Amino acid sequence: MNTQPERGGRVVILGIYVTDLTFRAARMPLIGETIAGTAFAMGPGGKGSNQAVAAARAGADVVFCTRIGNDAFGEIARATWATEGITARATTVDNLSTGAAHIFVDETTGMNAIIVAAGAAGTMSATDVDAIEADIAAARVFVTQLEQPLPAARRGLEVARRHGVITVFNPAPAMPLPDDLYPLCDYITPNETEAEALTGVPIESIDDARRAAELLLEKGVGTAIITLGEAGALLHSAQQSVLVPAFRCGKVVETAGAGDGFTGGFAAALARGADPVEAMRFGCALAGISVTRPGTAPSMPSLSEVNQVLSDAARAGSR
């Protein structure tokens, strides 16, 4: 996508870039088995980079911090960020490869299974965050995840909190977290699996999601947002508990980028000054479009496309 929207509201994202290697097939092979696939694609990915692309296409002024290798995948990364108008704070590490991800996509349902090797981004540390403190201080929103080492994510949240910047923490992939990390999070955005890993509550209903979200609040989170796939997303805070239904934008082709699209869109909307529920609706609409397209970063829609979905939904609701 070469058309860049007018930027509004700075979002700083700390995370990893990987090149996605996506295979489509009727099913996963068993151990020791080889099966025929139906399609293959290579493109930009990585949770942090995907969120950066989603936020940039949604109109945010995005700064993305990571590490990459001095290789062909690193060149793809830099070309992607340049095309999307993303300011890259990317350190090149000569003796390590750029990250890569194997993505299996079920050709019937669009559901996926992913293996990520972070490569150079797996060596990120608190020093990477210290180097972009000025960028964070000038931002409205700071976003991070857990594909890079936890100490880097923690420092990012600490620096953002020190400068009064809104913090959005996407705890993916799920892992045990220290108790003192939760109070650094204005917003936490797990999916059902991640929410269960953090709280011990299996998410099989909206009520389950509310129980898990309440436990996250008790740990010190400002607002918990649990994404629920086809059921939408639940925002739960001390002030309100709101379920935003999913947007049906067409046939589901691939779900791999949906969570990143939601988080990137949510951050972009917050950075423009949207209230949390409005920002969550924007993120849900963006994710609803992304699942109708193949790929992760390539599936992210433009600001005008998201606004059209929201406009159509508003008109339908008024009839």
TrEMBL record:
Q: Which reaction does it catalyse?
A: D-ribose + ATP = D-ribose 5-phosphate + ADP + H(+)
The UniProt entry's GO biological process terms, in alphabetical order, are: D-ribose catabolic process
Q: Where does substrate bind?
A: 18-20, 46-50, 147, 260
Residue sites binding ATP per the record: 191, 227-232, 259-260
Q: Which NCBIfam families match?
A: D_ribokin_bact
Q: Briefly state the protein's biological role.
A: Catalyzes the phosphorylation of ribose at O-5 in a reaction requiring ATP and magnesium. The resulting D-ribose-5-phosphate can then be used either for sythesis of nucleotides, histidine, and tryptophan, or as a component of the pentose phosphate pathway.
Q: Give the protein family.
A: Belongs to the carbohydrate kinase PfkB family. Ribokinase subfamily.
The identity of this protein, by name, is Ribokinase
State the organism named in the record: Paraburkholderia megapolitana
